[in-house]
Design brief:
Layout (H helix, E strand, L loop, with lengths): L1 E6 L3 E8 L2 E9 L6 H14 L9 E6 L2 H15 L4 E2 L9 E2 L9 H13 L4 E7 L2 E7 L4 E9 L1 H11 L19 H27 L5 E6 L14 E2 L3 H13 L9
Parallel strand pairs: 1-4, 4-5, 6-9, 7-10, 10-11
Antiparallel strand pairs: 1-2, 2-3, 7-8, 8-9
Helix pairs in contact: 1-2, 3-6, 4-5
């Protein structure tokens, strides 16, 4: 079985894959600067609590946008699983052509998402929207070329800034608002967090159609907050496990002989 870990600024999103089937999904905060022992014990406990023996893990792959955590998590994998993980970075094959000024600037999670989207939806022009700590959008050509994207503050981050930098605005539940024009402060904040994301995605899709010269574009949504926007119609398809799918494909591309048992 393959253990895939996506280390973000807020959470570690993990999964266990057996072949193309995701057997387990789990999350853990990444903001507590945990030791390698704490990470290792958490991983083993998460597996056992869900009926998977740690010894069944034969391979580990990691994407991370938190460089300071890479050594800690890699050490946990070596100590508690006796496995050296493949960490997505320079020199790792992805099959993705990154057509931006400095390809090394592209976050590992965005690379994994792109690879996963191209695997699930081949031969299509894609708009890929990831709603998490940050909201990101990118366009990817059907020839597997990553053409660029944008980054905005995520929904929760925007809410926290409002709460911390204003005297009277409260923290609110992040949800689909009942109306656009709220009748009280809470409703207005909820609406103000929600509808700019909807507008951003619509504008990105419109511009993407110009880039692809009005060819068909598939809009793929992913990320922890993507389900909040599921019923808006802004996504053609929602793929909450996209990063796990992408990590599996990247691992196969780099270490295919060791993954014959996962086919």
């Amino acid at each position: 079985m393959l253990l895939a870990l996506d280390v973000g600024n807020t959470q570690i999103f993990g999964g266990v894959l057996e072949g193309k089937v995701i057997r387990l999904r789990f999350r853990r905060t990444s903001q507590d600067k945990a030791s390698s022992d704490e990470i290792g014990l958490f991983l083993k406990q998460s597996l056992r609590e869900n009926g998977i023996e740690p010894e069944a893990i034969t391979d580990i792959v990691i994407s991370s946008v938190v460089p300071d955590a890479n050594h800690t998590i890699a050490s946990a994998c070596i100590k508690y699983f006796n496995l050296r993980p493949l960490i997505l970075g320079v020199g790792v094959k992805t099959g993705l052509k990154v057509a931006i000024q400095n390809p090394q600037e592209l976050g590992a999670d965005r690379v994994a998402n792109a690879v996963g989207a191209l695997y699930l939806h081949p031969d299509q022009n894609l708009v890929l929207v990831d709603l998490g700590t940050a909201n990101t959008a990118c366009i990817i050509g059907k020839d597997k070329e990553y053409l660029g994207g944008l980054i905005t503050p995520g929904v929760r981050l925007s809410m926290e800034v409002l709460e911390q930098r204003t005297a009277k605005l409260p923290s609110v539940e992040i949800k689909v608002p009942d109306v656009m024009f709220g009748k009280n402060t809470v409703e207005q904040i909820q609406s103000g967090l929600y509808y700019p994301v909807v507008g951003m995605v619509k504008e990105v899709v419109q511009e993407a159609r110009h880039v692809f010269q009005d060819e068909k574009v598939l809009v793929v949504g992913t990320g922890g907050f993507s389900r909040v926007f599921e019923k808006t119609g802004i996504f053609d398809v929602l793929e909450p496990d996209l990063v796990l799918v992408g990590l599996r494909q990247i691992y196969e591309l780099n270490l295919k002989p060791q993954l014959d048992h996962l086919a």
